[in-house]
Amino acid sequence: MTIQVSGISKRFGDYVALDSVDLEVRSGELLALLGPSGSGKTTLLRIMAGLEQPDAGSLTLHGEEALGQTPRERKVGFVFQHYALFRHMTVFDNVAFGLKVQARGERPSKAEIRRRVEELLHLVQLGHFADRYPAQLSGGQRQRVALARALAIEPKVLLLDEPFGALDAKVRKELRRWLRNLHDEMHITSVFVTHDQEEALELADRVVVMSQGRIEQIGSPADVYDRPASSFVYEFLGQVNRLDCTVDDGGARLADGLPAIPVAGAADGGLRGPAIAFVRPHDVALRPDPEGPATVVGVTTVGPQARIELRLAGTMLEAEMPRDRMADIGLRLGHRCAVQIDRVQVFPRA
Fold first, then answer.
1. Considering the entire predicted model, what is its pTM?
2. What DSSP letter does each residue of 273-301 carry, written as one string?
């Protein structure tokens, strides 16, 4: 089942939620809509589901115009962030609900409903919880019930709105792996909304990065992280140093004491003059040097990693390396050090 979004726009009063968005979701893929609050990702998902109507544009599901169809007619399964389970119903009845309310001519038999619900509960690893109520489950278990309920109607498309946003970090990570494995088994076309960069990069086949109602970039997780199309994408996807620089003679000059760093396209008439350079902390290499241009002014350890804050010619720079590597080279707070940056991406100064 493919989804084709063409020229979709949506306003809420004076606020532009979506500005002529074009997007194709490929059949069987797991696609992430990633962006900060207010970027339009949830509005786009709700339009796909039929829970919102656009002001302009078209939406087709497998080549068939869908904007005139109800959510039920679209055969879409929707999973909400806060589960939306019926508290007075058992797990079994929550999962069976969508089947029981179908029109009489479409409704499966009681035996078929039982078979399908038991199969889904086994699939989401909750087979022994059928008689429990939502209040008797953990957050991760409730979210799996919500997913089973969405799958019960055998949807053509599965849509998930911040599905792990209400869960703690450990449970989120476990459920991410579980959902990826489930998707690989079922191959149902799926779209999920998230503002968590790690979640999108770990789960999705492709990532759609959104900002201010527009799509900034679409690509594989490796594409959007390693080859960001804009300064917004670079800054949004992980920690980054943002440094003023000057581009000339094919290189970016960042600060006194550092050699120019080669910049693709700068030597053949591309970007020149004042610019902004973006450098990932893990692309900053350090070694102790009493004559080095940088001074260590802060060190923070996070698990096996060390984050080192440097003062470099009046500019602050963050580096990252394994803690044992930092211990091996003997780098300490207050030390001067040499800095090597081999990888940089440069964008014009706005």
1. 0.86
2. EEEEEEE-GGGEEEEE-TT-SEEEEEEEE
